[in-house]
Specification:
By secondary structure, the protein is an alpha+beta fold. Helices cover 33% and strands 31% of the residues. Strand 5 and strand 6 form a beta hairpin. The longest helix has 31 residues, at 4-34. The termini are far apart.
Length: 192
C-alpha cells in the first residue's frame, strides 16, 4: 500500500519517456522526408498551371529524372519545364571544411524560382557557375575571385545573383539525377 504512489509515479515517468522517444523519432523521420527540398517559392501568377514533381522522394524517379524531363518536354501540352538537382559539396578551406550547396539547373528553372539572370548565363557554357552574394563574399575571404574550385573541377564564375540562401552555386544541368521538376501546362491544354 505504501509503494502505490511510488509505482504510479514510476509508471508515469516511463510513459513520458516513451512518448518523448516517439516524438523524437517522428521529428527525425520528418527531417529525412524533407531532405532535398531546396526550392524557391513559385510566383502566384504561375501556380495554377504549374505542376511540381518532387523526384527526390522516390529513388527510381530520381534516377530516371533525365528521361522523365525529356518525355515531358516532348509533349505539346508542356509550355515550359524547369528542373533542379541539389547536392552539398565540401569546400576545403585551410584546416576546415565548409559545405556549399551546388544546384544543377535547367534554363527553365529561372521562371519557376524567380531568380533573374540564370537563363541567359546557363545557355552559354559548360564548366561555369553562377554564385550567390554570400558565396562570393565567402570566396573573397580566401582571395578567390572569378572561379569556384569544387573537387577536381574548377568552375568559372560568370555571374552573381541575389538570393537568401547560405552558400549556393548554380551550374548547368547536363543529365543524371534530378531532385525537382516543374512543368507549366499550356493554357487550355487537355492532358490525357
Amino acid at each position: 500500500r505504501k509503494h502505490r504512489l511510488r509505482n504510479t509515479m514510476l509508471g508515469l515517468q516511463i510513459f513520458i519517456g516513451i512518448f518523448f522517444l516517439i516524438c523524437v523519432g517522428a521529428s527525425i523521420a520528418q527531417l529525412i522526408f524533407l531532405a532535398g527540398e531546396h526550392t524557391n517559392e513559385l510566383r502566384d501568377s504561375t501556380k495554377p498551371r504549374t505542376i511540381h514533381l518532387p523526384l527526390h522522394r522516390e529513388y527510381t524517379l530520381r534516377q530516371n529524372g533525365y528521361n522523365l524531363l525529356q518525355f515531358i518536354q516532348s509533349k505539346n501540352w508542356a509550355e515550359l519545364t524547369g528542373a533542379m538537382n541539389f547536392e552539398h559539396v565540401k569546400y576545403h578551406r585551410n584546416d576546415r571544411e565548409s559545405l556549399i550547396g551546388l544546384a544543377s539547373v535547367t534554363p527553365g528553372y529561372e521562371e519557376f524560382s524567380g531568380l533573374s539572370g540564370l537563363k541567359e548565363a546557363l545557355a552559354t557554357g559548360e564548366d561555369f557557375c553562377i554564385i550567390n552574394e554570400n558565396l562570393r563574399r565567402f570566396l573573397e575571404t580566401d582571395s578567390i575571385v572569378g572561379y569556384l574550385p569544387v573537387g577536381s573541377i574548377t568552375y568559372q564564375v560568370t555571374g552573381v545573383i541575389q538570393d537568401n540562401e547560405a552558400l549556393r552555386a548554380y551550374i548547368p544541368y547536363h543529365g543524371g539525377q534530378l531532385a525537382n521538376l516543374w512543368v507549366r501546362v499550356r493554357a487550355g491544354a487537355n492532358i490525357d
